[in-house]
Amino acid sequence: MAMAFKMATTGMLVTDECKNSFMDMKWKKDHRYIMFKIDDKSRLVNVEKVGGPGESYDDLAASLPTDDCRYAVFDFDFVTVDNCRKSKIFFIAWSPTASRIRAKMLYATSKDGLRRVLDGISYEVQATDPTEMGIDVIKDKAN
């Protein structure tokens, strides 16, 4: 039977698929990004989409809906000024201006519970439009 992790503050449940996909991304580098969606009826946080290792940050940004909220994690690889290869995992709370107030509130109150389940996130970005989560924002935070 699938296991779910309960978020005490909202009653939302995070499916084990969320945690397992995140661990595959973190340790095996199976995914470049994972997008999560809250199902209103079942009150479950589910994996909506995964991006393969060859996909880019632009692919993730293009996948986000313009009128509904989502969570995403992105594995950002970069080279430091000392020429060392590094990887940082970003948590993105996407809450576009055009999304419903109820969805914005639900995602805002459930965010910390999901973050607790996804152990190993380096940085968080909250965005209401694409300019607030551009690749330049990610690069600035990583360095």
Automatic annotation (TrEMBL):
Recorded superkingdom: Eukaryota
One Gene Ontology term from the biological process aspect of the record: actin filament depolymerization
Stored Gene3D superfamilies: Severin
Residue ranges constituting the ADF-H domain according to the UniProt record: 10-143
Keyword list, A-Z: Actin-binding
Transmembrane spans: none
Family: Belongs to the actin-binding proteins ADF family.
Protein name per the record: Actin-depolymerizing factor 5
The organism of origin for this protein: Hibiscus syriacus (Rose of Sharon)
